[in-house]
Design brief:
Elements (H helix, E strand, L loop, with lengths): L1 E2 L1 H21 L2 H15 L4 H9 L8 E2 L1 H23 L2 H21 L3 H12 L10
Antiparallel strand pairs: 1-2
Length: 137
């Protein structure tokens, strides 16, 4: 499966805005919404990508493997869930640090095109030979 890198950066930009609002407002409900978006992203169905495709009709000049960005969405999901646990349990250091970590990763992708989760995916594939096996379709 291939992904449009423009849509991925758009999604990272929207995520950056959402997570910034989460930190400013300390809204667990807004973080719940982002958790849902990350979960859909892991499944390859990010609402932000759907929005991008509705706004931009031109075909991408190039595409990229969708597996690293989907892994990155999973990493974002883990941090967002940890942040949500922190907000719900009243453990503010956990809430703030986990949410800020997800925000930092989204910002790096949106602003500089550097996908931290994608790089983690590639590193894991290099370090673990079993991770290089293709999954049968």
């Amino acid at each position: 499966m291939r992904a449009d890198p423009r849509a991925l950066r758009f999604g990272a930009a929207v995520t950056t805005v959402v997570l910034t609002f989460v930190l400013v407002t300390q809204s667990a409900w807004l973080l719940v919404a982002q958790v849902v978006v990350f979960a859909f992203g892991v499944a390859g169905r990010s609402p932000y990508t759907v929005l991008f495709k509705a706004l931009v009709r031109s075909a991408p000049k190039e595409t990229e493997d969708a597996r690293p960005p989907r892994f990155a969405q999973g990493v974002g999901l883990v941090f967002a869930v940890a942040g949500l646990v922190g907000y719900v349990a009243g453990i503010m250091p956990l809430a703030l640090v986990a949410t800020a970590a997800a925000l930092l990763a989204a910002f790096l992708n949106a602003a500089f095109g550097f996908c931290l989760g994608c790089e983690m995916y590639l590193l894991i594939r290099r370090l673990l030979p079993a991770a290089n096996m293709e999954v049968p379709k």
